[in-house]
Amino acid sequence: MAELGASGYTLPVWVAAAARAALQQLLGEPFCDEQPLLLERGAQQPELLPVQAVAPLGEGRCLAMAVCEGGAALDLTRGLMIWVEAHWGAGEQRLQLMAGEGLGVFADSGELCLSSYARELLEINLLPLLPAQAKLVLQLIIPRGRVLAERTSNAAFGVVEGLALIGNQAKVQQSAGPDALQQALAELQRRLETPEGCKELVLVVGENGLNLAPQLGISEAKLLKVGNWLGPLLAAAAAAGVERLLLFGYHGKLLKLAGGIFHTHHHLADGRAEVLTALAALEGLQGEALHKLWEAATVEQAMVQLELQQPLLAQRLRRRIATSIEQRCSTYLRETVGSSLKPGAALFDRSRRLWAVGSQAEFWFPPPCP
């Protein structure tokens, strides 16, 4: 079996493993608890991935289950059960994918949200096994997907009802682990060594930010994905002579920086409720309204509630959050590397809109011409 070690496999890989086991059952083959998968097109050697169970459902249908293991990564999907229900179908497509419970779909179309890699992984491992003229239908199910999706920013990109299959590679990128930091530092160094250097830099938290930033007019060449290691990357950029720097990410993540938390993975540090309510109190929020802000399940929910009740205060609070992030980052850089760099902060919400822009970030988002 493949050694999971410190770096395990992404969600699409485990979906493909369960799907292959389900197809084997439909073909009348005995259950195999280790499924050989080619992890990319053209791969010569398959990896063996464990599958927990397969159950026939009668009438040409069966169900297979795998458990997602991301290795040592502190990942949302670690230990997550994945079910794939398979049956023979009809129509033109040899492989048809359906979103079951817990799978993310696009709100405007209802179509399953999956990356080209996720689809390709299923095609290269399943289509060669299909009998001639056979058509296979897979319903993908993640029982806890709907609940876990609330801890992501999928809704910011129009994905609802569950987790999206958006992995673009087999191995997990450990955004909370030291490997992610070293990769980002290496990429920063590479840019510094180019003839054009790296005078302007945007540190982006997460894939969603990478997708949204160019749509808001920021050059892709200036984007650097940083995962959760914001503090060390800020310090490295400042020490290297970056002259203008922007932090760009989902508000529920960057809010932590306003409280001096510079490693943002939720398993290691949180404090969002504490930071949010402290800043709201400084803006004058009191009594029951402040208590409701504290009790809200998410930053998104808290701010929507506040905007409905006290829109002017909510507007001031958004600005204070961005300003506090910028001030904390400036202080951090002054104290750690003696830099006078003043980073900007721009935060987006789940509606794909800029939620707050600090004064140092206004350079990156100039107002439209009248």
UniProtKB/TrEMBL annotation:
Keywords: Cobalamin biosynthesis, Methyltransferase, S-adenosyl-L-methionine, Transferase. Its EC number is 2.1.1.195. It comes from Synechococcus lacustris str. Tous. The lineage of its organism: Bacteria, Bacillati, Cyanobacteriota, Cyanophyceae, Synechococcales. PANTHER family: COBALT-PRECORRIN-5B C(1)-METHYLTRANSFERASE (PTHR35863). It catalyses: Co-precorrin-5B + S-adenosyl-L-methionine = Co-precorrin-6A + S-adenosyl-L-homocysteine. The gene is cbiD. This is Cobalt-precorrin-5B C(1)-methyltransferase. Belongs to the CbiD family. It holds the Pfam family CbiD. It is an enzyme of class 2 (transferase). SUPFAM superfamilies: CbiD-like.
